[in-house]
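User: Hey, quick favor. My workstation is busy. Could you predict this chain's structure for me?
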Amino acid sequence: MNNIEFRPRWREELEAISPEGKLIFEITMGKLHVFFPDESRWLASAPGWAKDKWSLYVQACEDWCRKQKIPISIVNDAHLYEEK
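Assistant: No problem, here it is.
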């Protein structure tokens, strides 16, 4: 079981909230679609505490998307940032 909660919010952002912190990903509105960073983009953009957690976050996001019936694409230009 993972401890990551996903919540879409305005400005086409998807919050990923975990005990370590909050990460923000891209989600299109209207016709929902999540754009998740590939591993190289993740390593370049993720905060230090999340660098080694790509596989955990991508799996959790894929699971959430499947349950919500929202497509997900793993791409090398997806935005990712930490919100404090």
